[in-house]
Amino acid sequence: MKKIKILAIVGSLRKESYNRQLALAAKEILGEQVEFTVLDYQDVPLMNEDIEFPAPDAVKRVREEVKSADGIWFFTPEYNHFFSGVLKNLIDWLSRPVSDEEPQVLAGKPAAISGISLGISGTSIAQDHLVTLISFLDMKVMNVPRVTIPSAWQYVDEQGKLTLNEIYPHLEKQAEAFVNFIEGK
Ligand code: FNR
């Protein structure tokens, strides 16, 4: 049977990003049962309609990656009670039709959301904003369960490495639920 493909989109470009580490923990949980890739989109330019057609190569590449995925799992930081500008920029590019014949690539795609932040909201406010945006773009959002991790410092050692401790079962549950959600179970 064909393996499910999950594309993780991390809303932080920081090398040691906790959200990136969370995505990698989810990848480890899912192991061999799915193909799990973290999207690299550092080279996507700022949205500017002057350069929209023909699409820049980086935009073509991320669109292809989204198109070939069975589900998109967002790992979002919280910047000032919102998701990050880099994530909004990426989604703005993805929200545009590819051509007259080809619609935007996010519509109908199953989506899951998780996030970790230093503050007490645990990204829940940013996640709510993200739900509004991706629902507008007609993604199929799995609203339950969502993982929100506050006070990230509790889970990070002196080298900045994330250890999930009691959070781990919640991420496991979400991973399992997302696979079932994608499979329509
Ligand atoms: C933050 N941070 C933050 N944290 C939070 O819980 N609520 C917030 O509103 C904000 N606002 C905010 C704004 C900006 C501009 C930055 C750079 C940071 C702190 C944030 O949670 C922390 O830097 C995380 O480590 C960011 O996620 P990554 O990069 O580790 O994935």
TrEMBL record:
For this protein, the record's InterPro entries field holds:
Flavoprotein-like_sf, FMN_Rdtase-like_dom, NAD(P)H-dep_reductase
Which GO cellular component terms are attached?
Answer: cytosol
One Gene Ontology MF term: oxidoreductase activity
**NADPH-dependent FMN reductase-like domain location:** 4-154
- What is this protein's name? NADPH:quinone oxidoreductase
Q: Which organism does this sequence originate in?
A: Acetivibrio straminisolvens JCM 21531
